[in-house]
Design brief:
single chain, globular, six-stranded parallel sheet, Peptidase_M26_N_dom, three-stranded parallel sheet, mainly beta
């Protein structure tokens, strides 16, 4: 679980790679990603938080701002929700660019 102290909302700034590959049964809450600049034109399944959330994983009260560039299957938040993953009260503000054909 990755979360802020109760009553606080923290921001991780200037990330250049996805925070996680997969989140299985975990929780990310009240944590923002600010000024994201992911520039991976050679890579597929690119998203700032994670490629996949599954197994009851929850992403809640999270905002991402910035730019995301990848080849195929590019997202501003997560790429795939599987097996009861949940997004709640989330936002992406920025640009998402796919340079591939998928």
């Amino acid at each position: 679980t990755l979360k802020s102290v109760e009553g606080k909302h923290y921001t991780i700034h200037n990330t250049e790679r996805p925070l996680f590959q997969n989140i299985i049964g975990g929780t990310v809450t009240k944590v923002n990603l600010g000024n994201v600049n992911i520039n991976m034109p050679w890579a597929d399944r690119i998203a700032p938080i994670a490629d996949t959330i599954k197994g009851g994983a929850k992403i809640e009260d999270v905002k991402v701002t910035g730019n995301v560039l990848g080849r195929n299957w590019v997202s501003g938040f997560i790429d795939k929700i599987d097996n009861q993953g949940t997004l709640r009260n989330v936002a992406f503000i920025g640009n998402v660019t796919s340079v591939g054909d998928g």
